[in-house]
Amino acid sequence: MFDLVISIIVLAAIALAAGAIVLWRKGVTKQAMLMAILAIVMIVNVAIWLVPMDGGDTPMEAATDAIAEEERAPD
Question: What is the pLDDT of residue 75?
């Protein structure tokens, strides 16, 4: 499910960037800049989740491992 969400976010960021370029060429600069900023924020958010940390794991792998460990722990 995480892969699907990340894919949708990346596709939305690409669409926002393309829309920002179109609006910029039409002369609607304020909305174009806002769309470009949102696209950058989305890409940075995806990078935060997918770029490996010091140990070599991504934050998503660390979160999955923590959930799995918590489920295995006896009550």
Answer: 62
